Amino acid sequence: MAEARTPAQIEADIVRRRQELAVTLDEIGVRLHPKTIMDDAKARAAAAVDRTAGRAYVAANRAVTDVRAQLVSEDGAPRLERIIPVAMIGVAVVGLLTLRVRRRR
Which of 55, 71, 93, 94 has the highest local Cβ count within 10 Å? Predict the structure, then answer.
């Protein structure tokens, strides 16, 4: 059988529960405050941008490494049989773009 509580114990329990409720309400108020919500959204957006930038960096680094592997041998010597055609294509593209710009004028 439960012990009978004194009025002082009951009053102390009520005070304690009111304090706990006040803390809980304060926490809810902070979480629902517009500034807190905006700060959380900004942090999530910044994290998403950081992840995207990191992935882009890794992809670009991988692409550069792949291209370098095609144009340079393992010992570091240039592969002229591959570099010369690529250079010629680059010169041709620049020439075509130059002609296009001149024709527009």
Answer: 71
